[in-house]
Amino acid sequence: MKWFNLGDEINLFAFIAAIGILTLTAFVVNSYTKQMKSKTPKGKLSGEMWDGIGKFENHIPFGWGLCFVFIIIWGIWYIFVGYPLNSFSQIGQYNQEVAQYNQKYEEKWKNLDQNQLVEMGESMFLVQCSQCHGITAEGMGGKAQNLTMWGKEEGIMNTIKMGSKGLLGADSEMPPVEMNEDDAKAVASYIMADISEVKHTRYPADVAKGKEVYNNAGCNACHGDDGKGMDGVAADLSTYGTPKFLALVLKNGKKGLIGKMPSFDHAHFNSVQIDALSAYIESLKPQN
Questions:
Q1: Can you give the residue ranges of the Cytochrome c domain (predicted)?
Q2: 83: pLDDT confidence band, cut at 50, 70 and 90?
């Protein structure tokens, strides 16, 4: 990379401005030096004296005043118009390049089949997630969420038993629910089959019972009859087990009961990557 690249518009402008400032500085210094040598100071003294040195009541030079007014006008324009709306920034350029790359990425990989999505998701998981969740995704003995049951009936059953915290923000919390394992399994089956967009459960025989328990146990009081939940209070169960649910956690992070998961919003995952990671997690078999 060249350190003196005048082919760049910004570098060229800065170089010309620097030459202009140096030239003007040399001219002003030379002019005032000549005046100090050849002219006698004139004007009215202010009356104050410091060790025999007085002060003239000279007004600000016209050129200085003009420059001062110009800088004020330029500053107002720059702050309120020039910089926020029409400026170049490295961050803006970076975001634009990332958006262009992601668009090309999505075009290239948008027609992946399920096996390819799972393979891509596994690669992402090993790089981005395994440090906390472990390479088997079981959570490393409770240090992080066991993802083998996440997005499945077992994940709902675990939430009913243990409660949940931090999914919708630091203050959001669902307390544990006193419910036997059969009823919890039925509720999980109902949510997966009828409420979630997944529309599939491994336990279809329990769906009817699950709907009854869901309403009688008071699940609908917070999550609603349709399972859409309430903002900041109860999660939207219609997205459970889908890439939308995963995208929410990746964006916001989760300060849960067993620890804090940071937001991965900085990673700029695109929709294909989120679909792939979701497909891999979905492919994992629950471990008791």
A1: 116-195, 205-285
A2: low
Using a cut of 0.70, tell me whether the model's pTM lies above it: no
- CA dist., res. 32 & res. 196, Å (int): 81
Residue 93 lies in a domain: no
Binding site membership for heme c: which residues?
A: 129, 132-133, 174, 219, 222-223, 261
Do 188 and 279 reside in the same domain of the chain?
yes
Residues 146, 52 share a domain: no
Burial of 105 (0-12, 13-18, 19+ CB in 10 A): middle
Sign, CA torsion 80/86/88/93: positive
Residues 6+ away with beta carbon under 8 Å from 201:
153, 188, 189, 190, 192, 193, 207
The rounded Cα 154 to chain-centroid distance in angstroms is 30
User: What does the alpha-carbon distance between residue 209 and residue 180 come to, in Å, rounded to a whole number?
Assistant: 13
Position 35 scores a pLDDT of: 84
Element spanning 45, H or E = strand 45-50
Asked whether the predicted pLDDT for residue 1 surpasses 50, the reply is no
- Same domain flag for 260 and 128: yes
Q: Provide the annotated binding site.
A: 129, 132-133, 174, 219, 222-223, 261
Percentage of residues of the chain with pLDDT beyond 70:
95
Nearest by Cα to 261 from 122, 133, 124: 133
Distance between CA atoms of residues 153 and 191, nearest Å: 8
Measured CA to CA, the distance from residue 145 to residue 156 in angstroms comes to: 13
Q: Which domain holds residue 73?
A: 46-82
- The full 3-state SS of 128-170, as one line of letters, equals HCHHHHCCCCCCCCCCCCCCCCCCCHHHHHHHHHHCEECCCCC
Write the pLDDT tens digit of every residue in 258-284: 888 999 988 888 889 999 999 999 999
